[in-house]
Design a protein that fits this description.
- By secondary structure, the chain is of the alpha+beta class.
- It has 17 helices and 23 strands.
- Helix content is 36%, strand content 21%.
- Strand 20 and strand 21 form a beta hairpin.
- Helix 2 crosses helix 3 and helix 15 packs parallel to helix 17.
- It starts with 13 loop residues before the first helix and ends with a strand.
């Protein structure tokens, strides 16, 4: 039986522990609606007084994170420890004072690892999140999760906010931050157990549980931004309860402004004599009935104060006013200015579905309509953003044959003289039902169009009529068509959904990593390439297949199981338009 020897040894189950954290973080982000590649690593800083030969350990030891990255880590830990803010802190109870050196040492190790890995993040286009370290054997072990930096272009964050008082909480910049922090907190808790990693499978929380915990923590962020002194109020649970209640059979649709009630940018139209507490959800749901598209309920994280509106002079860059939009029964979203932060459907939080990467839509337009210019594609993107932010659903169809279709569907819509559609004009023509028909140059040929087309295998009874009519129309005929569907509940779909583009540099990097791997280290890079077979050309497939053959030829030891994927072939639909530089 083959035995695996760990040179950079910290504790017996470090391999399975790291893999469990990586899979958990990936599953949590997938549950949120952000399916990206996640990598996890462990960094161990040797404790003072230990005679272990390795000052720093990294798991996986043959991975992409070299020991050189953490050169000087122990010296950095000592420097941070010597100037730690808790050095001047004196607690009123002896147990807290006794624990203080341990807490400073743990925090110093985490901070030193975070600082050391920053250069790697910049070079490789990732962002690292570090959990709190714990002493396991001879090492202060820091769990680290890395995600692509592009994730935060797709789902933008709030700006960093300094604490209102020294060492005070600041909340989270996004639901993603809160989710990964929750995963890392679970990792740190596991490190505190007698044999970390041994019984981890089945013991940690499920991804959906972690997502709900993260959403609950993230909803503290508005309160911290708007209140000088904030106490957690379980706002996430209370908003869910309000959204679930009916008032005389009617579902709650309206907007709730979360702000400091004395914010000068808030104009009151009426103010309740008695503020209404969120802990009385039926009362709060009743007054939600007073809200309208132009008038909102004014509240902080604990009470509703009245009806009002946000003055146009308010600057969204302040990020101290948030909007809760109740979209449908048991469905609501949290926004800050134009920044969508969280969506909740029937108690299940996720990232807002309108968060579509600009590059994805632009890429689809460029591939379907090569005659469109960069300016045309940018204009259609701006129209998409405007449509996504409107109250109510809408649909835009871009078609090669828009002019001919406007004539054919004249009795099912309103044809117009072709005009370049602007955002302001979009808002006007969206006031009537039906589809807006554009050509690839963003010229509008018809409005209020009722689409036709035969049913096909992409139609589904689980979606509404707007989505299914888009699928039927886009798949009918020989002309190229792209449908952008914004449902009433702000669910967003683009059809056809072309494959996203992948970085050429990233593909080459994983091929080189795989080609340099051995039978102990090939799994990660091989699995990455296996999931992205579509993006490989003939030369790349040949290079991968040569190394697969070399790995197959390495003699197996007794009991060794080696899993290799089938040989790679070029996908006939692949071309260079699917790659970015």
């Amino acid at each position: 039986m083959k035995r695996y020897v760990i040179d950079l040894f910290m504790f017996p189950y470090q391999q399975s522990f790291r893999a469990s954290i990586e899979h958990l973080a990936q599953d949590v982000l997938k549950a949120l609606g952000a399916a990206v590649e996640v990598k996890a690593l462990l960094v161990g800083a040797r404790r003072p007084g230990s005679k272990n030969s390795h000052s720093v350990c990294v798991e996986p030891e043959k991975g992409r994170w070299k020991l050189l990255l953490f050169d000087g880590l122990l010296e950095a830990v000592e420097e941070i420890f010597a100037t730690h803010p808790l050095q001047s802190m004196w607690y009123g109870d002896e147990p807290s004072n006794s624990d203080k050196p341990k807490r400073m040492r743990q925090d110093s190790a985490t901070t030193a690892v975070r600082n050391a890995i920053h250069s790697y993040d910049i070079e490789h286009g990732v962002r690292s999140f570090c959990g709190a370290s714990r002493l396991v054997g001879d090492y202060y072990v820091v769990p680290v999760v890395q995600v692509p930096e592009s994730l935060f272009h797709q789902f933008p964050q709030l700006s960093e906010r300094p604490p209102r008082y020294e060492h005070g909480p600041t909340g989270y910049r996004s639901l993603i931050d809160a989710a990964l922090a929750t995963v890392l907190k679970a990792a740190t808790s596991e490190l505190e157990r007698p044999e970390p990693g041994r019984f981890m499978f089945g013991e940690t929380r499920r991804p959906d549980e972690i997502v709900r915990i993260a959403a609950n923590r993230f909803l503290d962020t508005p309160g911290l931004a708007i209140s000088p002194r904030y106490v957690s109020t379980d706002l996430f649970t209370r908003l869910n309860l309000i959204s679930s209640l009916l008032y005389e059979g009617a579902k709650g649709i309206g907007r709730l402004l979360l702000a400091n009630p004395e914010n000068p940018s808030v104009e009151y139209l009426l103010r309740f004599r008695e503020r209404i507490p969120f802990r009385e959800p039926r009362w709060a749901r009743k007054v939600l009935q007073l809200a309208s598209p132009d008038v909102v309920l004014v509240a902080d994280s604990e009470y509703v104060y009245g009806l009002g509106r946000l003055l146009p002079s308010y600057s969204p860059s302040e990020q101290d006013v948030f909007m809760v939009e109740f979209l449908d029964h048991y469905t609501w979203e949290l926004r800050c200015g134009d920044l969508p932060l969280l969506r909740c459907d029937y108690g299940s939080p996720s990232l807002p579905s309108e968060a579509l990467e600009k590059d994805t839509l632009i890429s689809s337009l460029a591939r379907l309509f090569p005659q469109s210019t960069a300016a045309d594609q940018e204009q259609i993107w701006q129209l998409f953003i405007a449509a996504a932010r409107q109250d109510g659903g809408s649909m835009i169809v871009v078609a090669d044959d828009a002019e001919a279709e406007a004539d054919r569907l004249a009795r099912q819509g309103t044809g117009i003289a072709p005009v370049k559609l602007t955002v302001d004009l979009l808002r006007q023509v969206s006031s009537i039902d039906g589809t807006i028909l554009l050509d690839p140059h963003a010229a509008c040929h018809a409005i209020g169009v009722i689409l036709d087309g035969p049913a096909n295998d992409q139609c589904t009874p689980s979606r509404g009529s707007r989505f299914n009519s888009a699928v039927r129309y886009a798949r009918s005929g020989l002309a190229r068509r792209l449908a952008i569907v914004v449902s009433d509940d702000r669910t967003i779909d683009v059809f056809p959904n072309l494959r996203p583009r992948v970085s050429r540099k990233q593909v080459d990097s994983h091929i080189n990593e795989f080609s340099a791997s051995d039978v102990d280290s090939y799994h990660s890079s091989m699995n990455w390439l296996d999931k992205r077979r579509f993006y490989l050309d003939a030369l790349q497939c040949a290079k991968i297949n040569v190394h697969l053959g070399n790995l197959e030829k390495v003699p197996r030891e007794v009991g060794e199981i080696r899993y290799l994927v089938k040989p790679f072939e070029v996908d006939p639909e692949f071309d260079s338009s699917y790659l970015t530089e």
